[in-house]
Amino acid sequence: MFQYAIRRTIGAFLMLIVMSIVTYLIFLATPVDAARLTCGKQCGEQQIQINKHALGYDKPIYEQYWNFVKGLVVDRDFPADPELKKTHPEIIRHCAAPCLGYSANKNQLIWDYLKPRVPVTVYLTLAAFVMWMVVGVLLGIWAALRRGKFADRITVGVSLLFYSFPTFFIGLLLFQLFAFQWDLVSVPQYIEPSNDFGQFLANLFLPALTLAAVYAAAYVRITRTYVLETMGEDYLRTAKAKGVKGRRIVFKHTLRAALTPIVTLAGLDLGLLLAGAPITETIFSFPGLGQAAVNSASQFDLPMTVVIVLISATFVIVANLIVDLLYAVIDPRVRY
Amino acid sequence: MTDTLVPLTPAESEPKAGTPALALSLGRAGLAASAALALVSVFVPWFKPGDADSPIHPTYWAWHKWVPLLAPLLVLLGGFLLALKYVLQPAARRAGLKVPGSLRSAGSSLRFLLRVPLLGWLLRLFGRIGGGLAGKNEFPGTDRLIGSRAAGAAIWAFAFIWLAWILCGRSGISKCTHTEFGTSCEDFDFHGASAPYHPQVGFYLVIIGGIVAIISGVLLALKAPADENPERRAVWQVSEPGGAAVTKPRFLEVRDLKVHFPTEDGLVKSVDGVSFGVEEGKTLAIVGESGSGKSVTMQAVMGLHRGTRARMSGQVWLNGTELMSASDETVRRTRGSQMSMIFQDPLSALHPYYTIGNQISEGYLVHHHVSKSEARKRTIEMLDRVGIPNAARRVDQYPHEFSGGMRQRAMIAMALINNPKLLIADEPTTALDVTVQAQILELMKDLQRDFGSAIVMITHDLGVVADIADDVLVMYGGKAVETGTASEVFFGASHPYTWGLLNSMPRLDRERAERLDPIPGTPPSLINLPTGCAFNPRCAFKETVDNNDRCVHEHPDLYQVSPAHHSRCFLVDQNQLGTLREKEKA
User: Fold this and answer.
1) Contact of B140 with B82, CB cutoff 8 Å
2) Tens digit of pLDDT for each residue in B553-584?
3) Which of A206, B205, B243, B341 has minimal Cβ neighbours within 10 Å of its Cβ?
4) What is the DSSP secondary-structure string of A200-242?
5) Residue range B362-383: average pLDDT?
6) Which CATH number is associated with domain A117-286?
7) Confidence of residue B58 (pLDDT cuts 50, 70, 90)
């Protein structure tokens, strides 16, 4: 078990390195000249060359990549010019290790820009996660227990409807209905939980609901399938033959078996969502990672995009790792 | 035996057409209509309380916050009153408890509410909903279905009240803009000046929807449910023609048991009129091919088909109690404590995620109020008893850590932990190799000696039958084709199917190695049984009967061979067995 965990962690680490290389390569292959974007229309060719040099874009790719990796352990300066540091130290941006780089576009250190955004995405995702797991799994069980009946068909039908709506449609629909037509919530905006926890929750409700709707719809169907599959198992008949009560059969014997694959899926989905929910965050203008990803990609902010992709990849890989390790705890038959 | 028992409701009767069916469809249509109305009303422009053309009386606005609380309050009050009337007071009286005077007078001073015409009806309705939601709707005189129908209607009505509150109650819609200079709010007409603005329409939609929901729910609750499933609620009466005493049922007695499964291809008649009985300390073997209905029969005895789509009729008497007409709760209490079942494939019959000990002790905890450690002690004792070495350690292992024989022993321990009077074993030795088979059979015989229980052994292995059975029931196509004591069935088999089974069994005592003689053909489809005798397409003696094709056109009865031996074959009816046997010898 311990050995397996070590092996998997090393594997995950290698995966991250490959991910970062690939991301670097893809973005350097774009026809956009990053240096060209650092100054305005009036910018002359000479100025572009100077900026290019200052940002290190004139160096070969492997060197740029190496500088990025090195920045994780040693401090970096932007621009990395020792002479300029002597003459005009006020221009130099100092980036303490671990340094994720500097965005010329935002004129900011990348981590300074992203740091306040991580909790936004985490709160949003966790709120949505709780909503969709509770609603999705409970409705799924309910539908499975009423298999083939009216309630089952309605639940499955409505979940299919929600599942097939694009997120931006559900988001805008909920926005319109809840915030304007019924005036149940104020127009959501991100509020720091430390400022006003009640308001924070109230404002989190709508975006989280939007995210949760699609996932809940998927989980209703998944849960229903797994519960139905489990309900055909012989060991439930054994439990019934022992005289165990109906509710206990459902919530102990059936759920225990049906939840195993659901937990796996939930872990992976959570990891994916922690990397940002670009559409939802954009609709509700929540300053999260997803919004930053959309912005940086549309503005060709290369260093920012690379870092966001890496953070996202880390979340997914770590979620994968945790799910795999959890499996040994959930299913006694699994041994590593 | 069956002629003294007359069903009040014929098992085959269909749900009666007429008013209930009409009410049912009306009710369903009503619920659908109200759902549609609810959807429409959500998207209809709404109005503000201050509007001059608002159809709502101003007094409402002063109270509207409390409207949604009405329904839950009614549920609580109604539930309390009904519980007081039907559950608590009788229970206290039975237990000889003195209900404190103040509480009693409080109860009875409130209980007049139940008799107030409309309010009383509402309180009962909502009370039952409360009971239904809590899963305890066992008030006498009420029907589970009525409870759920009424609950459906009430949930709709509740949703409408809630919707009305939300939609009517929101005051002054305003739009706030947040800028760096601060927040400014202004009146905001979402629908714009050009949008048609008909507040009354939406309001009336909600009201109409609510009324439709209530009416249709009441229709569903009052009219529909009584005879939706006649098989399940078939009422049986023990009649006494001419004052004759009714036959006292044996320890386990099954009378005219039918289990039918409706499927898309048609009605599968898995068990079609089977009767048998076992006394305590005796063993009955049910023999037959796969699909002959032997497992389904015993699962029906255990009540394992309850709550599924299976249609059942007949009687199952266990120790003087009739189980088919008993409530689910009664049967659940009987399962595991008085009767228990060993299933054929122990690996799939044990839960893979729980330890053996957990699963066995659960059976004990369900029927006994003991602590977990006591149950565990008992479990270890039981595992020890069925011959699992080092039981104290193995109790914490999972099924996949056990070998096949050990798993079957664990299953037996699970079945025997409450010392059941009836043990049903569904092919307990099929998945095991021969030496383990013998051990398991020996173990069951031992346990029967110790506990004096009746055993019903389902098997297709005639060797097992010869080893353990007192009586034998041979099943074919969902019916009993031959019954009798083990020796009579073995040495005087009187049905061609039984002969076929005996011939297809390898024997050591034959002089030369003969080829085994399988029964030709395949088991019949339980949806379309062959006409006449179900075995006739495979029967080699069809010509021998030779009486205007009786085998094809006429259903054979169970004919008596000897007082304790019956066979469903015309050969017995026409007394041709003797001549056949002489021919065989010659």
Assistant:
1) no
2) 888 888 888 888 889 988 888 887 777 777 76
3) B243
4) HHHHHHHHHHHHHHHHHHHHHHHHHHHHHHHHTSHHHHHHHHH
5) 91
6) 1.10.3720.10
7) low
Chain A residues inside the 8 Å CB shell of B334: 243
Cβ–Cβ below 8 Å for A244 and B354: no
pTM of the model: 0.66
Tell me the residue length of chain A.
Answer: 336
Which residue has 């004052």 as its token pair?
A: B243
> Does the pLDDT of residue B483 top 80, yes or no?
yes
Beta-carbon neighbour count of residue B582 at 10 Å? 9
Start-end ranges of CATH 1.10.3720.10 in chain A?
117-286
- pLDDT range class, residue A322, cuts 50, 70, 90: confident
User: Between B170, B348, B354, which is nearest A233 by CB?
Assistant: B348
* Nearest CA-CA distance, residue B488 and chain A, Å: 33
- The values of phi and psi at residue B263, to 5°, are -130, 175
Q: Count of alpha carbons within 13 Å of A111, Cβ hemisphere only?
A: 11
Distances (CA, A) of B75 to A299, B81, B146, B152: 59, 10, 16, 14
Q: Which of A220, A233, A4 is nearest to B354 (CA)?
A: A233
Our CA dihedral for A193, A319, A307, A32, rounded to 10 degrees, sits at: -120
Q: Are A57 and A80 in contact (CB under 8 A)?
A: no
Residue B315's φ and ψ, nearest 5 degrees, are -130, 145
- Measured CA to CA, the distance from residue A254 to residue A239 in angstroms comes to 10
CB contact under 8 A, A332 and B304: no
Cross-chain Cβ contact B188/A180 below 8 Å: yes
Pairing of strands B339-342, B321-322: unpaired
Angle between helices B404-416 and B434-451 (to 10 degrees): 10
pLDDT at A281 over 80: yes
Those residues whose C-beta lies under 8 Å from the C-beta of residue A310, and which sit 6 or more positions away, are A16, A19, A20, A23
Contact list, A247 vs chain B (CB under 8 Å)? 135
Q: What is the pLDDT of residues B77-136, one digit of tens each?
A: 666 666 565 555 656 666 666 656 555 565 566 666 666 767 767 666 666 555 444 433
CA distance A304 to A289: 11
> What's the token pair of residue A129?
């996660």
